[in-house]
Specification:
Length: 254
């Protein structure tokens, strides 16, 4: 260890200690004691170590940034896909926070469960699974998210169409647990409010879902997720059928 500099000895006994055998570390410590280093010498060596660590971190960050830029350059679908993932994640978190009290109440009262409850819990479980699959560029992620987007697009259209029907029984059933304060209004005002709320809420959901679904079904995205025509058509058909069946069960209960 005698040929080692103070800087190297200090690294061996501190930041790089795990890279050396115990005997080598002990030899470095004995050498430092033998040199009788002053506080100034130790401070100078420590400063060099800190500068080296900062430069190493800067180079690592630069490498990661360059890899990211190269990936964007080599794969033009990466940036839009990440945007979709971020938007869906934010919308999921906002929706979860906004409906958490309702979800908790629903779990405590299973006697009120109906087909809309199944839709609610399926959505809460499937969306994060699909987002994770999109992030990992897995086929199942494309299938789950495309199914949910197709489902939201179709059900959003159904809600907008049905919101023009002044069926007091159905409207009150749809909103009685989520907007109970509006029940204090007279029946006609309650129906008008529910109709407008449903329409305005469903329109952006239907449009946004359709736009995201369109992009995920572009040839370059299908190729990236290794989705063939059969899987694509089956996913969209299943989303349509489930939307129709659920709409019949919710809006026209037997």
């Amino acid at each position: 260890m005698r040929e080692r500099s103070n800087f190297e000895l200090l690294k061996i006994t501190t930041t790089q200690r795990s890279n050396y055998q115990e005997a080598a570390v002990e030899a470095a410590e004995l050498e430092m004691k033998a040199r009788n280093l002053s506080p100034e010498d130790i401070h100078s060596a420590s400063s060099l170590i800190e500068a080296e660590n900062r430069e190493k971190e800067r180079q690592e960050a630069k490498t990661l940034r360059q890899r990211f830029l190269n990936r964007l350059k080599d794969d033009p679908t990466h940036r839009p896909l990440m945007a979709i993932i971020i938007i869906l994640s934010l919308l999921y978190i906002i929706n979860l926070l906004g409906t958490w009290s309702f979800v908790s109440s629903t779990l405590q009262h299973p006697e009120y469960w109906d087909w809309s409850t199944l839709e609610l819990f399926s959505r809460l479980v499937l969306i994060p699974i699909g987002i994770f699959g999109l992030y990992k560029v897995q086929t199942f992620g494309w299938i789950v998210i495309s199914f949910m987007l197709g489902f939201f697009a179709f059900t959003g259209c159904f809600n907008m169409i049905y919101s023009f029907e002044f069926d007091t029984y159905t409207l009150v059933n749809s909103f009685e647990r989520s907007i109970s304060v509006i029940k204090t209004l007279d029946p006609f005002s309650w129906m008008v409010f529910a109709t407008r709320f449903t329409f305005l809420f469903s329109l952006p959901i239907a449009l946004g879902s359709a736009i995201f679904l369109y992009y995920l079904n572009r040839p370059e995205m299908l190729s990236r997720f290794d989705v063939n025509k059969t899987v694509k058509n089956a996913t969209l058909l299943l989303a349509t059928l489930v939307s129709l069946v659920l709409a019949m069960l919710v809006y026209f209960p037997f």
